[in-house]
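ARCHIVE CARD
Drawer: 12
Card no.: 0347
Subject: one protein chain, sequence and derived structure
Cross-reference: see card 0346
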Amino acid sequence: MFWRPLTLLLCLAALQLVVSAQSNSTTLSFQVQSGGNDNYFIRDDTSAAQVLVTSSNNTSPVRRLVVALPAGNSGVLAYFLPLNGSGATNSTLNVALQNGSLATTTELFNNTGVQADLSFSGNATLGVTILGAVRAMRDYVEGAGLTHEIFNYTLASSNSTSLHLHRQWINATSTGEYRSADFYLTAKSGASFSVTPGNNGTFTPPTVNILVNGSSAGIVQMRLVCNETSLRGLSPSELFLPEGKGSTKGINTALQGLANGSDFVSQEVSFLTYQDKFTAGGWRFLTYFGRDSMIALRLLMPTLSSNAIESALGAVIERVNSTGALCHEETIGDYASFVNIGNNQSDLGNKPFYDYKMIDTDLFLLPALRHYFLELPQGKGRAKAFLAKNATLQNGTYAELLNRTVTYNLERATLFAQNSSVANLLHFRDGQPVGNWRDSNEGTGYGPIPFDVNIALVPASLRATAALARANIIGGNASAGLAVEADGVAAVWEENALQFFEVSLANETAGARLTNFIVKANLSEALIGGSGNATGRGNKTFYALSLDDDGTPVQVLHSDIGFNLLYGNNVSQSFLQRVTEALIPYPRGLLTNIGMVVANPAYDVNTTNIDVLNRAAYHGTVVWSWQQGLMAGGLTRQLGFCNATNSSAVVDINPPPQPGAKPAWCNNSTFVKSVEEAQSRLWTSVMGGVGQIFSEVWSYNFDNSTNTFSVADLGALSPSGTESDAIQLCSYGFLGLLSPNAMRVGH
C-alpha cells in the first residue's frame, strides 16, 4: 500500500460569496466565490462541471485546482506549488481561471468533460494530483493527506508543451465498456513544461514543472474528460413553477426570477438537480444523498413543479433496500469499485454502492409525501399515478417499495410504544458511530441516541403515515387500521420520549459553567453582560443533543429543536418556550451576529465537549445555513397555526394538525408575542450572514474589542481540512422562505 502526503499551508480567510451569471433555457454558467476559493460552474447538453481554483487573495503559497463532474462523481484534484529557478519555493504564485475560457468538450470514445485556460503568475511545480473519483479527492483533503495506491494515475505522454495523465478505472471493463479519466495540460502563450518521469511506474509520480517564459503570466489549458454518462439536468423552467402561478401571494413573491433564470440563484440550485436525482452540494457532494434531497424538498416544495418534486421523491423510493431502509449516499463510478472491493464483492465491479447506515433518512420520506399529496396544489390527485410507476433500479412499483418503508418505520417505533424505556429509543445502528445529519462521532457529543430522530422525526413519520392511510393513498384495504395504529404509536412517542432529553440546571450551576466556557472559548464576559455567573432567573432548562446508551444526556444546547417546529404535530407551549430561550445571543443561546450556531456546549458538565464542539469542528459552534432555514420555516409554521404571522410572508402551506382548531398556546397573546420576538431575533442573526446563505457551513472569528463575530472559513480552521461547499442543496431551502417583512433573502 502506497500513501502520498502533502503538507498544505492553509490561510484564515473570511468566507465571501460573490456571484455572476449568465444563462439560457438549457445552459448554466455562473461563478461563486466562497471560503478563499473561486468556483466556476457550467452545464449544457454535453456535460456539467464545477471548477475550483484558489482565490488570488488567499495567502496560502499553495494553489489548488479541483474539477468535479456529476457524471460518475468524477474529477481531478491538483496542487500547484511555487517554484523558482533553483527549485526553492516562494509565496508569490497565483493561478487563475481566465474569464470566458471555461467550456464543455466532447472527444473520442464518448469522453466528455470541461476545459479552461489557467494563468500562472510564476513558475510552478505540480504537487499531489488525484485523478478519477471525487470521493477519493474528498478523502485526501479531509483524511490528513492520505490516499490509496489504487488511485494512482499513469503518465501517458509529455513534452515541453503538453502533459497527459491517464487513469483507468479499477474495474474498467466490468460493464463491458472501458472506463477511464484523462487530464491534460497544454502550454499556450508564455508557458512551457519540464517533465521528469518517475522511476517506479505509477508508484512514483512524475516531476512536472510549469515554466513561465517572460515577465507576463503563462497560459496553460487544462482539460478533464471521462466516459461516464452525463446526467440530464433540470433547467430553472423545469424546476420551478412559472412566475405568478403560485397559489398564494407568498409563493408568488418567492417565485420571482426563478423559473426564467433571471435570478442567478435559480441557476445554482438547478445545477444540483437532475431528472433522475438531486445532488447534495459542490464540489464535495455532487452525488445522491437521500436526507439532503428530502430536507431541501420539504422547504422548497411549494415553489417546485410537480415533475421536479416527483423526480426527487422517485429517486428516494428507487433506492429503498429490502428491509425498507432508505439510502443515505449513493457511491457511483470508480469509487463504487473501490468500495465493492473493500466489501469483498469485487465481482460487482462498479455497480453503485448504496449506504444505509443512517437512521434518520428513513423518516423524512412519509412527511414529504404527506405534504405533497395532501397539502400542496401540485400534488393533489397525483398520488395514484405516481405510486403506480414501475421502479427502474429494482423490481416493483413505487407503492410496493414504499410499503417496505412504512412497515419498517412502524416496526422500529412499536417497541417504545410497548415499553417506553431508553433502551427502546432509536439508537445508531450496531457498529456505527453516526446515524443522523450530525454525521461525525463528535457531532452528537458521542451520544448514540440523537434528539432529532427520537423527538421530531419518528412521530412526524408516524403521523404522516396515518394521514396518508386515512386518505387511502397507502395501506390498501388495511388503510383504516394502519392509520389508527400509526397515530397510536406516535402519541406514545410524543408523550413519553421528550422527558429523557430534558436538562434542568440550577441557575448558579448554569452560570458557573457559562463563565468557564467563556474563558475556554476565548470569548468575552461582555457577551453575558459582564455579570460573571448570572444566567437569568430560575433554572436553565433545555433539551440534550443526544443520550448515551445508558440514557445520560449530552448537555449541549442545539438547533435540532427546529425539526419539531417544521415536522412536529401539536407542539406544546413548554417546548416552544425552550425554543425562545435557545434563540438568544450566543453563548447564552445560539444566535450570533453572523448566524445561528448548531451546537453550544457552554452548559455541558462534560467540559471536553468545549473542545470537541469548538469553532473548528464540522458540527460544532458553527453555522449551517439549512439549519437556520429549518428553524425559520418551523417558526413560521407554528405561528401560522395561530394566524399570528403576516400571510404575505408565508410561502409554505401548512394546515393546522386539526383543521379549525388552534393550539392551546395561541390563546396566550403574551406568549405568542415572545415567539414572534424569537423569530425576529433569528432573522436578524440570519441576515448578518446573508452573504453565505447558500453555502454549506461557516465558522466565526471573535473580536474582543467590539464583542462581535465575523465570518471565518471553516476549511482554514478545521484540523482535518473539512471545508464548506460553495453551493449546498439544503441551503436553497431559503428560496421557499420569506423574512417576516415578506422579502426573499439572498438574491
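Annotation on reverse: Residues 30-226 form one domain. Confidence is low (pLDDT under 50) at residues 1-25, 85-89.
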